[in-house]
Design goal:
Shape: elongated
Structural class: mainly alpha
Distance between the termini: 81 Å
CATH topology of the largest domain: Recoverin, domain 1
CATH class of the largest domain: Mainly Alpha
Number of strands: 2
CATH superfamily of the largest domain: Cullin, PONY binding domain
Length: 270
């Protein structure tokens, strides 16, 4: 089977991801099977020596020196005693201290997103290990250095949106469909002013929170959470260009009326 260089490299990467083998071993099996991935995987599964070597590769630092053993040792420093596959609040506090960041720092949301953390203040071993393995950071020193990279990534509109969307499931109470207003309020105060793709003044955010308070501080749905970010990225400063025929949640349509009235009152002479 003829294959371009890019296609061959893709097959090698896929083989490594599935088996954990070294790039050299992956290339050897694929070359022997004319780069047919299924055939190469079958040959690998029938070779006990190669499988043992791949397992050793995973345990002792394969893929360019990223060591699962290092990650396991680091995980053990913070894991919960009774639930060793989880890090709980106490471990998270120690982890933040070692990373050199405050738990309430916005970049911790990016860390949680990177590691697929299930709920606030908690990490799962699989998500944490997979995230840092993909980032190629297997020591606390390397992870601490990576914080600046994550902070810079938050200045990219697409990455910010992904972190923002992730935050809803991360921050809502387990088993609930909505987020408590008090939590949403604090997260909006943290996130919205930092959005690189929005020009939504803090005074407008204050109006939004005031409006929600007049409605009884109801829990925030996922739809409202996600679409509010879109709203802040598209609305003009005077709320004049809001399209009421668009598919906005009714709470946002009602907020626009509230904001227009509030701005009109502010504009009146004393």
């Amino acid at each position: 089977m003829s294959s371009s260089k890019a296609a061959r490299e893709t097959r090698v990467r896929e083989f490594i991801d599935i088996t954990g083998a070294s790039p050299q071993e992956a290339a050897r099996f694929l070359k022997a099977t004319s780069y047919r991935l299924d055939a190469a995987l079958e040959a690998f599964s029938n070779d006990p020596t190669a499988m043992r070597a791949a397992e050793q590769q995973r345990l002792s630092g394969g893929e360019g020196g990223i060591s699962i053993r290092n990650l396991d040792k680091l995980w053990d420093k913070y894991r919960d005693v009774e639930k060793p596959d989880e890090i709980h609040f106490e471990g998270t506090i120690r982890y933040c201290e070692d990373l050199g960041i405050a738990p309430e720092d916005i970049v911790m949301l990016a860390v949680a997103w990177l590691t697929k953390a299930p709920t606030m203040g908690h990490f799962s071993k699989k998500g944490w290990t997979d995230g840092w393995r993909e980032a190629r950071r297997d020591t606390i020193e390397l992870q601490r250095a990576y914080i600046d990279r994550l902070r810079a990534d938050l200045h990219k509109g697409d990455t910010f949106r992904q972190v923002y969307a992730f935050t809803f499931d991360y921050a809502k109470a387990e088993g609930q469909k909505s987020m408590q207003y008090e939590i949403a309020q604090e997260l909006w105060k943290l996130l919205i002013p930092s959005d690189p793709a929005a020009d939504f003044p803090t005074s407008h955010l204050d109006l939004w929170l005031e409006f929600l308070q007049t409605r009884g501080e109801r829990p925030v749905s996922k739809d409202t959470w996600n679409l509010f970010l879109d709203f802040t990225r598209t609305i003009d400063l005077l709320f004049q260009e809001h399209d009421e025929e668009a598919a906005w949640p009714s709470v946002i349509d009602d907020f626009v009326d509230f904001a227009r009235h509030s701005l009109a009152c502010m504009a009146q002479p004393a």
